[in-house]
Amino acid sequence: MSETRKYRMFTPEQKIEIVLAGLRGDRGVRDVCREYEISEALFYQWRERLLEGGKTALGTPRDKKPPEAAELAEARKKIAQLERALGRKTYELDIAGEALRGWE
Q1: Which residues, 6+ apart, have CB-to-CB distance to 101 below 8 Å?
Q2: CATH number of the structural domain 8-62
Q3: Which residue among 8, 16, 22, 62 has the highest number of C-beta atoms inside a 10 angstrom radius?
């Protein structure tokens, strides 16, 4: 009979906590892995992913905006236009309502 192995799932926050615990240096990687019951190979995989993600994030120049920033700016511009148009129409309806009340 074969057993189906059940793997534990770690959240990204838990993975970061584990990797940082190993990077702090106050205890060894082996001790951290033993505490969280993970293999050292898994720890080093997570560490490499974390460092690679950090390198990517830090490699982006401050003045260069991410691609979605342009899309967000365009959406905000469109929202502002629609809000102005709504304001104008609301004002026109108020004036029309006042004019109709004067006919009574």
Answers
A1: none
A2: 1.10.10
A3: 22
